Amino acid sequence: MKKLILMLTIIFSISVLNVNAQKNKNTTTTSYGSTLNLGLGIGYYGYVGRSLPVLHLNYEFDVAKNFTLAPFISLYSVSNDYYWGNNNTPYRYYSYRETVIPIGVKGTYYFDQLVKANSKWDFYVAGSLGLAIVSRNWESGYDGDRNYYKSASPLYLGFHVGTEYHFNNRIGAFLDLSSNGSSIGIAIH
Known about the structure:
By secondary structure, this protein is mainly beta. The protein has helices spanning 2-25, 112-115, and strands at 35-43, 52-64, 67-84, 92-110, 121-138, 155-166, 171-178, 181-188.
């Protein structure tokens, strides 16, 4: 799992570097892209059956007027104890750990011009598409149903609405309300 996370981080970093290199070659001015978004929030991906804290990272780059694409990676992890036993095993607590890493791309449309927003504010709707990498570990000795939480699809789809407030031309704060994982965070331009 650690090798997979390292590999995904390297791929994400290379894509960000490529985007920056392309941006430097581009003579047009970007209005929403070239933004690193770091967020913390609450997510529900359908695996554990309840909301959990989520760490979220994406990097936006301009694709068209008022439209950006952002490769993203999120992370949530949970650890639980379950009381289990049967005729062959005495009842006792067994630990369970699950880590979910959604990765993909988020497409965002900014409608600031439509609502005539102040230059300090951005308003958007977005959709995200990707897959969720899931790792589950049960304590050894557990002989219960290990497939109990395998109901969610690895396909990750999300709908977002959000806003960002710009403190200055380099730093902003955002609120992203999503069908999968809502977050608040810092935007670095």
